[in-house]
Amino acid sequence: MVQGDDGGQRAEKITGKLDLAYRELGRQNLKNIAKPVEVYAINLDAASPGSRFLATANLKQEIRFCKAPDGVRLAYATVGAGPPMLKSAHWLGHLEYDWELPIFQHFLLGLAKDHTLIRYDARGNGLSDWDVNEISLDAWVRDMETVADAAGLSRFPLLGFSQGCPVSIAYAAQHPERVSHLILYGGFATGTNKRSSLTSADRESFAATKTLVKKNWGADNPAFRQIFTSFAMPGATKDQADGFNELQRLSASPECAVRYLEAVADLDVRELLSQVKAPTLVIHVRDDPMVKSDLGRELAAGIPGARFVVLPGKNHVLLEQDLGLPRFFEELKDFLKNTI
């Protein structure tokens, strides 16, 4: 790995001077350095699993940057051909590693098969700026507006993923003229702190989790992050679990992870559900341990005319081997084709 100085100057110094390929790994936490720094990887094996996978798929994503109104740099990627589809950002995302690790590859390629897929890293995550002043629903909605404008989107289907669902709902309610279809996967209208089922024990557990995240998230030992991995994808293979453990460390700092936990826990878009005008498809995995299917059912019940589909499985993140994955794409295709 090569540590970059301001503006990626070290990357510029090696470009064209060494017969080596390199790529951005985003901002990472390094020992004895107070703030995250830009890190680059030198590819000594041109035939890496990730590059072979992309070559086979014959797809190449293009990464660009834009700036939110408050000056935060946002990274977004475009891949595929056909009508556009915008996918919401989500926690623990990284535009490059999502392609290379055996977690999201199949899902993203499925989306890009018939569409020009536009996706982006949320503020504080991946290739977007890590050091940000505001993390909130309003900031996330402004970021979605910024990316949609930068990508030149006028009217498009919007796919909300996990905690990106409340953001997508807010965006759809505010911009009915731009969202042709709304697809919500693994989502919810209320964060943990806003749910009627919240107990004092839940509050204590949440406080303890934040403390552990702050102290252990960026550690070399993935034991603590494995707790989150087991919760998000209990049916993962070893390679998939190892990949998600690493993705967590690469995608966000411990401080930002805590701030995300706090912001997501306080989300509440229940009052916006009835304001969504776009045809809506709500999809949820039946035994999702991270976001219970009842929360998806509440979304569908609150959005006028929304259709609710339950997939078999127990992984919050749909994995390649999941029986619900083919059904997801079948439902998506039928929804986009048959809904005006």
SSE arrangement:
Blueprint: E1 2-3, H1 9-14, E2 21-28, E3 37-43, H2 49-57, E4 62-67, E5 73-80, E6 84-87, H3 97-100, H4 105-112, E7 116-120, H5 137-150, E8 156-161, H6 164-174, E9 179-185, H7 200-216, H8 223-232, H9 238-251, H10 254-265, E10 280-285, H11 293-302, E11 307-311, H12 324-338
Parallel strand pairs: 6-7, 6-8, 8-9, 9-10, 10-11
Antiparallel strand pairs: 1-3, 2-3, 4-5, 5-7
What's the total count of β strands? 11
Summarize model confidence as the mean pLDDT: 85
Class of secondary structure makeup: alpha/beta
Count of helical regions: 12
DSSP strand content: 15-25%
Strand order of the largest sheet: 4-5-7-6-8-9-10-11
Radius of gyration: 19 Å
Q: What are the low-pLDDT stretches, counting only 5+ consecutive residues below 50?
A: 1-23, 42-57
Largest sheet: 8 strands, mixed
Helix and strand element order: EHEEHEEEHHEHEHEHHHHEHEH
What is the rounded distance between the termini? 49 Å
The rough form would be described as globular
The portion of residues assigned to helices is 25-40%
